[in-house]
Amino acid sequence: MKTPKAHSIVFIVAKYTFADEVRQKSMIVIFLISALSVFLLRECYKGDYMVNGQALSADAIAWTLSKVIFHIIAAGAMFISALLTMRVFKRDRDEGMLSCILAKPIGRWQYVTGKILGLWALSVLFMFILHSIVTFITSLSMKTFIPAYLVASLICSFNLLFVVLAVFLLSLMLPDIAAFLCAAAIGLISLAVNGIYSLSQSQMGQAMMQQSAGAIPSGVSWWKALYYCWPNLFGTQLSASSLIGTDGGMPVYPLINVLLYCLILGVVLLRRFRNEDIV
Amino acid sequence: MIELHEVTKQYGSLTAVDRISLSVGRGEYFALLGPNGAGKTTIVKMLLDFTRPTAGTMSVDGISSKEPASRTAVGYLAENPRIPPNLTGWQYLLRSAELLGMRRTEAIDQGEKIVELVGMKGREHTKVNTYSRGMIQRFGLGAALMGNPKLLILDEPTSGLDPIGIREIRLLLESLKQQGMTILLNSHFLSEVEKICDTAAIMNSGRLLLKDSISSIIKDGETLEDVFVRLVKG
Predict the structure, then answer these.
(1) How many contacts does A have with B, using Cβ atoms within 8 A?
(2) What is the CA angle A85-A40-A134, rounded to 5?
(3) Quick one: pLDDT band at residue A252, thresholds 50, 70, 90?
(4) Cα separation of A242 and A237, whole Å?
(5) Is the complex ipTM higher than 0.90?
(6) What are phi and psi of A91, to 5 degrees?
(7) pTM for this entry
(8) Greatest Cα-to-Cα distance within chain B, rounded to the nearest angstrom
(9) How far is CA A200 from the centre of its chain?
(10) Which helix (DSSP H) or strand (DSSP E) does residue B46 occupy?
(11) 8 Å CB contact between A233 and A253
């Protein structure tokens, strides 16, 4: 019997992780409900919308709606991804797969990397299918195909990698539900930080700051520091969505921020799991 | 095949294994005996690198147990083995084979033989959640045998089995021994150990009390159980 190559073991573990998750009834139900909900949204494209007494054009409606739905799906995928990841390690331990795998000539890094890849692939596929449905509906409505929508979806996949790594790491130290809640808190804080940062950069925000002179600036600088240091999940989403439509260039910083966090979390996770007792 | 040198494992202030040195030769059928909490399972876990020793070194087939390569030719059956309930026994065997790097055709050939060997022919394609504990035990043993390991580590392999099942597993292990496989057995079934093992080590509170051949341990009309009780209680 030949010893399998390191990368092939990683892919085998990833394949089984993917297959085990897909087999879960809850996963199938969540996916079907999500797909159906997105599909039903096509009715929104057919409505008449008035802004300041003027009727919006069908194209404007399609662009705006597709962007809003893009963000809902991307945020929802992070939520689902955290839900899937939080119980993976515990389930492997409870169902005996952890000891089955690690009793073989398989390194712990191979196991962890395989798990991450499997969960990430599943989460990305989940989000990509939902985004593809929206692309299809929008394309039908505008009678033109929007490849940028799918590219934006792929950029958001790095957010899912962050969530998988963060929840996996946290689930080694905390109860599963606490790991999930921590990841959700990271996402919510990112949303708040981005909102305040965007406001501070807007004309209205600038005017407000000038008016209240001394009081706000120190607070704003805190938010600015948080914007640059906190995992910028929502910023990445906004960057990706700037590809859809005519918003101009895509800000790269949030993506770099998330990728750096992924790298750090990956290293910490591997080191943490290397010293974990297998029971 | 197995070498332990001054191995110690501490969990905080508790010493689970206390400076144990022992070796198990190739082809030997070795029993690790001791009451609950003696440190037997901790030794097995350290051999598989599930947990690291606090001090000392251990190796399998000349390779440090810290290296995944030391488990290349090791089959392991856990105490109370578990199998994902959404799989069938057959899928579980094939998974074990694939994780060992076996080709699919090879895995299927060997899987069919093993299903017959562990007495589960006809039940291999039903879901694990319909299996009894004994049936899971048999598939767990089957998975440990995939890839023809040189060393088989069995933690209470007969727990959950009925007397006929215990006898069948004993006969199976005897035939594996005939084929030259090294077997490390953790067991409370002293009468079974007495019948089939070559060597035994008796542990208590993390310490090694005795290691010798079964024939040397049992003297003057005593049974293994008598010796065990005398050593552990004394």
Answers:
(1) 76
(2) 65
(3) confident
(4) 9
(5) no
(6) -65, -40
(7) 0.88
(8) 55
(9) 25
(10) helix B40-47
(11) no
Taking the C-alpha atoms of residue B17 and residue B40, their distance in angstroms, rounded to an integer, is: 8
Residue A278 to residue B68, Cβ atoms within 8 A: no
**Ramachandran sector of residue B199 (left: φ over 0; alpha: ψ -120 to 50; beta: rest):** beta
For Cα atoms B155, B158, B161, give the angle at the middle one, nearest 5 degrees: 145
B68-99: per-residue pLDDT in tens?
999 988 999 988 888 988 899 999 999 999 99
Nearest to A96 among B52, B83, B147 (CB): B83
Nearest to A195 by CA among A158, A155, A230, A151: A230
Q: What is the pLDDT of residues A39-95, one digit of tens each?
A: 887 777 666 667 777 777 767 777 778 888 899 999 999 999 999 999 888 889 988
Residues of A in contact with B82 (CB under 8 A): 94-96
From the list B45, B68, B101, the residue facing A1 with the nearest CB is B101
- Which amino acid is present at A113? T
Q: Identify the residue whose tokens are 């488990």.
A: B71
Q: pLDDT category, A3, cuts 50, 70, 90?
A: low
d(CA A163, nearest CA chain B) in Å? 25
With an 8 Å Cβ cutoff, are A20 and B84 in contact?
Answer: yes
Phi, psi (deg, nearest 5) at residue B199: -135, 155
Question: Strand ranges (DSSP E) for chain B?
Answer: 2-11, 14-24, 29-33, 55-60, 63-64, 74-77, 151-155, 182-186, 199-204, 207-213
DSSP secondary structure of chain A: -PPPPHHHHHHHHHHHHHHHHHH-HHHHHHHHHHHHHHHHGGGGGGS--EETTEEPPHHHHHHHHHHHHHHHHHHHHHHHHHHHHHTHHHHHHHTTHHHHHHTSS--HHHHHHHHHHHHHHHHHHHHHHHHHHHHHHHHHHHTS--HHHHHHHHHHHHHHHHHHHHHHHHHHHS-HHHHHHHHHHHHHHHHHHHHHHHHHHSHHHHHHHHHTTTHHHHHHHHHHHHHHHS--HHHHHHHHHTTTTT--SPP-HHHHHHHHHHHHHHHHHHHHHHTPPP-
CA gap A26, A22 in Å, rounded:
9
Q: How many CA atoms lie within 13 A of A125 on its CB side?
A: 12
Q: Please name the residue of chain B whose CA is at the shortest distance from the CA of residue A92.
A: B84
* Residues of chain A contacting B46 with CB distance shorter than 8 Å: none
The residue to which tokens 């929502």 are assigned: A234
Give the other-Cβ count within 10 Å of B216's Cβ. Answer: 10
Q: Tell me, yes or no, if B148 comes closer than 8 A to chain A by beta carbon.
A: yes
Q: How far apart are the first and last CA of chain B?
A: 31
